[in-house]
Prior knowledge:
Blueprint: H1 7-15, H2 19-22, H3 32-39, E1 45-49, H4 55-68, E2 77-81, H5 84-98, E3 108-110, H6 111-121, E4 133-134, H7 137-150, H8 160-172, H9 182-185, H10 193-206, E5 209-210, H11 212-225, H12 227-236, E6 239-242, H13 250-260, E7 266-270, H14 284-288, H15 290-293, E8 298-302, H16 310-320, E9 341-348, H17 349-365, E10 373-377, H18 383-393, E11 397-399, H19 409-422, H20 427-433, H21 443-456, H22 460-467, H23 475-494, H24 500-510, H25 513-518, H26 525-539, H27 545-554, E12 567-571, H28 572-575, E13 580-585, H29 596-619, E14 621-635, E15 638-641, H30 646-649, E16 656-659, H31 667-671, H32 677-682, H33 692-702, H34 712-721, E17 732-735, E18 739-747, E19 750-755, E20 759-764, E21 768-770
Parallel strand pairs: 1-7, 1-8, 2-3, 2-6, 4-5, 6-7, 9-14, 9-16, 10-12, 10-13, 11-12, 13-14
Antiparallel strand pairs: 14-15, 17-18, 17-21, 18-19, 19-20
Helix pairs in contact: 3-4, 4-5, 6-11, 7-8, 7-10, 11-12, 11-13, 16-29, 17-18, 19-20, 19-23, 19-26, 19-27, 21-22, 22-23, 24-26
The protein binds a DNA duplex (15 and 10 nucleotides) through helix 6, helix 11, helix 28 and helix 29.
Amino acid sequence: xxxxxxxxxxxxxxxxxxxxxxxxxxxxxxxxxxxxxxxxxxxxxxxxxxxxxxxxxxxxxxxxxxxxxxxxxxxxxxxxxxxxxxxxxxxxxxxxxxxxxxxxxxxxxxxxxxxxxxxxxxxxxxxxxxxxxxxxxxxxxxxxxxxxxxxxxxxxxxxxxxxxxxxxxxxxxxxxxxxxxxxxxxxxxxxxxxxxxxxxxxxxxxxxxxxxxxxxxxxxxxxxxxxxxxxxxxxxxxxxxxxxxxxxxxxxxxxxxxxxxxxxxxxxxxxxxxxxxxxxxxxxxxxxxxxxxxxxxxxxxxxxxxxxxxxxxxxxxxxxxxxxxxxxxxxxxxxxxxxxxxxxxxxxxxxxxxxxxxxxxxxxxxxxxxxxxxxxxxxxxxxxxxxxxxxxxxxxxxxxxxxxxxxxxxxxxxxxxxxxxxxxxxxxxxxxxxxxxxxxxxxxxxxxxxxxxxxxxxxxxxxxxxxxxxxxxxxxxxxxxxxxxxxxxxxxxxxxxxxxxxxxxxxxxxxxxxxxxxxxxxxxxxxxxxxxxxxxxxxxxxxxxxxxxxxxxxxxxxxxxxxxxxxxxxxxxxxxxxxxxxxxxxxxxxxxxxxxxxxxxxxxxxxxxxxxxxxxxxxxxxxxxxxxxxxxxxxxxxxxxxxxxxxxxxxxxxxxxxxxxxxxxxxxxxxxxxxxxxxxxxxxxxxxxxxxxxxxxxxxxxxxxxxxxxxxxxxxxxxxxxxxxxxxxxxxxxxxxxxxxxxxxxxxxxxxxxxxxxxxxxxxxxxxxxx
DNA sequence: TCCGAGCCACTTTTT
DNA sequence: GTGGCTCGGA
Length: 771
C-alpha cells in the first residue's frame, strides 16, 4: 500500500510524527473515501461518486490541497466541467478555501471554453484566424442548410437540421471528414453525407468560424499534427480534473487522453449511473473502461449518502440494479427513519396535476417552503398540465429551462450587428440583419449578392463592396446596399474609440433596430425592447467587444431569476445535480417514461439510460419522493390509455407505499353496481392492468391502513361522484377517437355508445362530450 | 412585404 | 392540440 501513497500522502505523513494531528483543517469533516480522493493526487484516479455523496466537496478540496501542498501553481491545473454553472461553482468553492490565488486558475472551465482558448492560440494550424467567430446551434443549422442548397439537394427531404445533427454526431466522435467511414457516409443524403460535411467545413473556414464541435475537434487536429504544441500543454498541465466524466463524448475523451498521456495525473469524477446524455454523444463506455485506459488507476467509490432517507436510497438502488452495464456501487446512509417512496395511480393527467397541486398546498400548510418542492418530468410537454393547475391555484412556480436569453430573436439580431462589426467575413450575421429593419434589401437583392459572392468566392461584405461600384444592381438596391455597408464601416471605425457599451447603443440606435421594435405594435415588442436593454447592460460588463462575443457564444447561461418562494418545475435532465426536500415524479407510464421514442430508436441501451434518468429523479429527493402514473393521458390531442411504467415494478416493495384513491379501484369499487371505473377501461384493452405493478397497486389499496388517501377530502369527492351518470340513453355524444354516436346503454359511468362510423363501443362518460 | 392556409412533427439539450 | 414553417396571394 505504501507504494501507492501519493506524493501528497507522503508529504502529509512526513509533516509530523502523528499524521492525524498534522492534517490540515480542510481535511477535517471528510469521510475516509473523500479524504482518500483528496490525497491521491498522483497517477490516474477514478472517483465514482454516487448521488449526494459529497462529490463537489471532495473535488474542490482536492484542487485546494494540490495548491496548498505547492504540487502545482494555479495555472498548471486543468479542471474541466460541462456547464458554466459547474465551473463557476467550483471556482467559488475553491476560492473559499484558498482565497485570491483562485484567480490564477485560468484553465478551470468548460470543455468548450478551454478548447476555444487553446484554439485561439493556434488557429492558423487549422486555417483559421485567431479572431474566429464561434457559431451557435442556430447558425450551424443555417449553414448546413446553405450547404444543402448549394449541393442542389431536395431541401424538403434533407433538412439543414438533419445535416447539422449528423455532422455534430461525427464531431462528437472525433471524426473529421476524412475519417468518416464510407458506410457512415450513407447516414445522410444517400452517400453525400461526407462531401456535405467537407463543404460545411470549407464554408466555416471561409467564414472564419468554428462551431461547438470544432472547438475540441480542431484541438485534437492541432495536437496530432504538432506534437510540439501538444507537449507544451502536456507539460503545463501537471494535474487534470474532469467532472461528470460519464457525460464525456469520444472527442472529449480523445482530447483528455492526449493531454494526460505524459504526466498521467488525471482524476475523473463521475457516476456511471447518472449518465443521461447518451443521445447527444456521451459515451458511458468512457467511464466504464477508465481502468483499461489508464492502467494502475485507483478507483475510489463515494457511496455514503448525505442526502436522502433510507427508503429513497433503497428505491433508487434497487431500480438501478436492473441495469447491466454499470460499474456497481451501493449507496448507504446512517439515517434511519423517514417516509417511504409514495406511488400513486390516478385516473388521468389532469387529476395527477390536481392531486400534486393539492399535495404542494398541504405541504405548504405544514410550513414547507415552496422552493423546497419540485416537479420533475420526463419531457417538457408534460409541464403544461402542471402550469395550468398551478395558475388556477395561484401557486407560484418556476420553470427551469426553456428558451435562453441569447437564443431570442432580438438578442441574436443585436449580437449579429456586433459580430458583423467585429468580423466583416461573418456572412451569417450579414444575412441575419442586412434587411432587419427593412432597408430595401429584399430577397431579390440578397440573392444577387449571394450569387456574386459565391462566384467570386468572397464574403458577402466584400462582394457587396464590389457590387455597389458596378451596375449589376438596380439603382435603388445599390443605394440601399451602399448605405448599409457605409453604416457597418462607420461602426467599425467607431469601435476603435468607443467602449463596447457605447458602440452597442450607437449601433442599435443608428441601425434603426430599436425603432423597429418601438414601432412594432405586437404584445411582444415591450419585452423585446427590455431584452435589448439587457444586451447593452451585459455588454457594458466587458472591456472588449471580442470578450463579450465569446461570452455570448460560450458562457450564455440561462438567466435564472433567483427568486425564492416558488415550486420548481423542470425536466429530469435539468434536475441533475440538484436536490429538493420534496420531489414529485409524475408520468411514470410506459411510453412516457420510459419514453417510447427512446426505446424505439435506442433499444436496450436506451432503456438503461431511461432507467438512469429514473434513478437521477429519485435521488434528487431528500425527504419525500412521490411517484405517480395516470391510467389515461391526452397526448397530441388524443386520449391514450397507458400502463404503469416498468420502473414502478422495479421499486422494492418495502421501500414503497402505494397511495391510491377510493373510487378508482379497491374498496370503493365494490360499492359500485358492477364495475369500477378501471374495469370500464379494461373493456378496451384487457391486458392493460394485468401486470405486476398494477396488481400490487390494487392489492395494496385493499390492505387497510396502507392505502390512506393522501388528500382525504378530494379523494372522497372522486368516489362520491363516481356513481352519477353524465349522459342519458338516447343522448347524442362525441368521442375524440370514435366521433359521433348515440348512447344505447348506461351503467354508471360506463356507457355503451353506437358510433356512426365504428359501431357499438363501451366507453367511459368522461371521454364523451354532448353533441 | 405581410398574412393566412395548409402541412408536419412532436424527448431529453450544454456548449 | 400546438407551434413552426412554407407557399401563395393580396
